Amino acid sequence: GTRQIFFKTKYIDPHADPSLFANTPERLKAVIVILVRNSELEKLLPTLKQFEDRWNKKYNYPYVYLNDVPFTEEFIKKTSAMTKAKTYHATIPKEMWSYPSWINQTKAENTRVQMELDNVPYGGLESYYHMCRFNSGFFFRHPLLDEYDYYWRVEPGVEFYCNIDYDPFAFIQKNNISYGFTISLKEVPESIPTLWKITEKFIKKYPQYVSSDNSAKFISDNNMETYNLCHFWSNFEIGDLRFYRSEAYLKYFEFLDKAGGFYYERWGDAPIHSIAAALFLDKSRIHFFNDIGYKHEDFGHCPPEQEVRKSGKCQCDPKTNFDGFQDSCLNQYFSSYI
Ligand code: GDP
Ligand code: MN
Questions:
Q1: Mean pLDDT of the chain
Q2: Cα separation of 338 and 335, whole Å?
Q3: Which ligand 1 atom is nearest residue 92's CA?
Q4: Nearest CA to ligand 1 atom 1
């Protein structure tokens, strides 16, 4: 099948590179980024425990916690106690988490009412819209991230099923990878009615940003005529912040933001990161982290290969692996390579 061909011929296997397993790894300009609410503290602590045990206790990469309101003393104390690494807690500047001047807030409110009626997840929740816009256009510009090149996004409640015995940041640096994922799936169509039309407009205006070696097949089944709704699930990301800071991405975000779809529709950051990565990056710069077992809410990635499970001491049941499910977009991802 496609999976076998991909792994045999296109997959860059971190475990095949002894230099990544050196005893005294060099620490890169990399950071763990966690956007989280004070109310999610209890959900976050077990995630941190697992993340540290399974990986970061060996590397001690710093954490940056971001919030639209100030973190409580309790939050700061309890999260800092989970690691030897440095932790930073910051409030997001207002302009990164509020309506831009050109947005009609009555129209935005009507959108939320309609989205709720259409059962779009979080469609009625105003803060969710700000969160998606922040993750699409601003997290990488938060001043606390200025000094970093790489990030790993973590959310409260997620699980890490397997040991990770190398530094994924070193791996992506060495292999010139800009975006790494574990789960890919289909977006809710009602959340993005005009996203593709506007993206097409953008590409027409700026064809120079589209890579000639892109992975358009991941996001379209018909040669870019329509969007197939495939995206990388952005609650897990390991990537290069310079991808978002690039002219192509910044222009794309600005174009989308002006179109108003972060409030007049319910655009998520996942399809936006994904479409940008699929179009602007060479396909070799997107990596599937098969060896990182991971779970977010209802779906998980559980590596089925025995050698991966063994080297990672994975605690998940491969029967739960999302890769083989109907809504997985892993085949579309592979298809852009094969
Ligand atoms: P889902 O992953 O799409 O189901 O949405 P989540 O509720 O998990 O939100 C995505 C991420 O943004 C999580 O890390 C949340 O903690 C964070 N988040 C969502 N809404 C807010 C908010 O209003 N304030 C803050 N500080 N974080 C938020
Ligand atoms: Mn989540």
A1: 97
A2: 5
A3: 26
A4: 235
Nearest atom of ligand 1 to the alpha carbon of 34: 14
Contact 153, 33 (CB under 8 A): yes
Over residues 32-50, the mean pLDDT reads 99
The CB-side HSE value for 298 (13 A sphere, CA atoms) comes to 3
Q: Which residues pair with 258 in a beta bridge?
A: none
Per residue, the 3-state secondary structure of 191-212, as one string, reads HCCCHHHHHHHHHHHCHHHCCC
The atom number, within ligand 1, closest to the CA of 130 reads 23
Residue range 64-72: average pLDDT? 99
Active site residues: 237
Angle 327-226-100 from CA coordinates, rounded to 5°: 90
Binding site membership of 36 for ligand 1 (Cβ less than 6 Å) = yes
Task: Quote the tokens at residue 93.
Answer: 């500047």
Distance 24 CA to ligand 1 centre (A): 35
pLDDT band at 338 (very low <50, low <70, confident <90, very high): confident
**Site to substitute for ligand 1 among 75, 127, 131, 182, most atoms within 8 A of C-beta:** 131
Q: Which helix (H) or strand (E) holds 278?
A: helix 269-280
Is residue 91 pLDDT above 80, yes or no? yes
With tokens 């060495």, the residue in question is 174
CA angle 271, 277, 279 (to 5 degrees): 100
Whether residue 40 has its Cβ less than 6 Å from ligand 1: yes
Tokens 């939320």 correspond to 112
Q: Compute φ and ψ for 35, nearest 5 degrees.
A: -90, 125
Q: Establish whether residue 154 lines the binding site of ligand 1, counting it when its CB lies within 6 angstroms of any ligand atom.
A: no
Query: Under CATH, what is the fold of the domain 25-335?
Result: Spore Coat Polysaccharide Biosynthesis Protein SpsA; Chain A (3.90.550)
